[in-house]
Amino acid sequence: MSAYRGANSEAGRLADFLEAVKLGIVPQGSVLLVEALDRLSRLVPRKALKVLEGIIESGVDVVTLNDGRRYSLESIDADPINLLLAVMLFMRANEESATKARRLKAAWEGKRERASETPLTAVVPAWLRIEGTGPGRRIVPIPEHCATVQRVFDEYLAGLGLESIATKLNSEGVPCFGSAARWHRAYINKIVDNPAAKGVYVPHRYEFTGSKRVRVPLDPLPGYYPAAVSDETFQRAKELRDGGGRQKARAGQPVSLLGGLARCPLCESTMTRYSKGSGVKGGKPKLICTKAKAGAFCVRHPVTLADVEDALLSGSRQWLADCPSGDEGLDDTLRGVLAGIDGLEDAIGNVLDALAKGPSAALSARLHDYEQALATEQQRRDDLLNMLATASGPRLAKRLEELEAALTADPMDRAQANAAMRALLSGVVVDYTAGLLQFNWKHGGQSEARFAWPMEVH
Predict the structure, then answer these.
(1) At a CB cut-off of 8 Å and minimum separation 6, what does 421 contact?
(2) Per the confidence metrics, is the pTM higher than 0.85?
(3) Number of alpha carbons in the 13 Å side-chain half-sphere of residue 247
(4) What rounded mean pLDDT belongs to the chain?
C-alpha cells in the first residue's frame, strides 16, 4: 500500500496495527521496529508526523533500524531535536516519492506523444495483438477475432439481444477471446460499448483525493487501434443503446443476497437470478448457472432462490461461527512480493534516468519488460492484501459482527447485507446435488449450511 498517498495507514497492514494499538491488543510498552521512518509514511511532513505521534502517544515506541534511533514521548519531550529530525526525514521521503511520481508521469506523457509510432502499453483489446518488441512494436489485428467483433455488431444492429448473441456464439462453437471458456452477455456488451472497436483509444490518468485514487479519462486518440468496425456502425450501435436498446432493471426489484457470490457446483461458474414473472407457473425467482443459461456445456438446473436464502438466514449463526482463521504464511509471501515491487520500481527509475540521456532500443525493451513485471507483482500484492485484510484478528471479528447484524436486521437492507457478505466471501457454492451451501472465505477455508432441495439432476 502506498505510504506516499497514506493508504498504508488507512487500509494496509499499518492500519491493522494502528487498530490493534487502539483496541489494546498491542499493549503499552511495546516497540514497533521499522527499517526507516519512510516505511511509516511518505505523506507531507505535517501528516506524516501525525502518524508517528499517534503511535507513540498510544504508549508504543518506534525504533528505526537504519540508524538505531528510538522515538518515544520521553525522547521527544527530553530532546526536541528528535522531533525536528523526524520532520526532516519525512520531508526527504516525501520529496523522493514526489520526484519519482513526476518522473513516471513525464515518461507516460512522452509515450503518449509518440503514440502514433509506438504503442503506449502492452495491453490491447482481445481482438488485437502486439507485434515486435521495443520501439518497433506495433498493434495488428487478429483476423478471425475481428470478424467475430464485426458479427457481434451486425447481429446487435439486426435486433438480437446481448444474451441471444452470446448463446448463438456458444452453440456454434465460435472461439472466445483470450482465456475465456465461453461467451457471456457482459462480454458482448463490453465489445459493443468499447470505442476501441472503431479504433479509438481513451487513455486515463489517476488523480488522488487523500489516498483514494480516481481514474479520469483524457482526450481520446482516434486511429490508435486498427478499426474492426466503421465509425458509422459503432455510432448506430451507440444510438440503439442510448435509445433504450439495453433492458433496464425494474425499479424496486429486490437484490439477491447472493448477488455476485453464487457459484455452480458442477462448473464453478457464477449463478444468476432470473424470473419468468409472477403470472407464470413456477415464476418464483430462481438461481441458474450462467454457463447453462448461455447455452454452453453445463446442466440447466434452476434452484428456487427463496429456499437458498431461507437456509442462509436461518443457519447464519452456525456458518458464521464456523468461519475459519487466517493463514499466517501469507505475511511471508507478501513480504517477498513487496520486496520484488521495490526492486522493479528502482529498476524502472534507473532505466528512465538512462533513457533521459539518449534513446536506446535495448533500454526501451527492458523498460517494457519491467513495466509488465511490475503490473503482475502489483496485482499479486493487491490479492494478498485483500486476503490479509480479512484474516487480521480484530478486523475479521468486526466484519463478522457487521455481517451478522446485517443478516438479522429487521427490516433487512438487502443491498447492505450483500455488500457485507462480499467483503468476507469469495463465493458461495449452491450445491443442489447435496442440498448444501458452501461458503468460501476470502482469507481461506470454508463453512456450510444445509438447504432443502431435490437431489436428482437432469
Answers:
(1) 257, 258, 261, 403, 428
(2) no
(3) 9
(4) 78
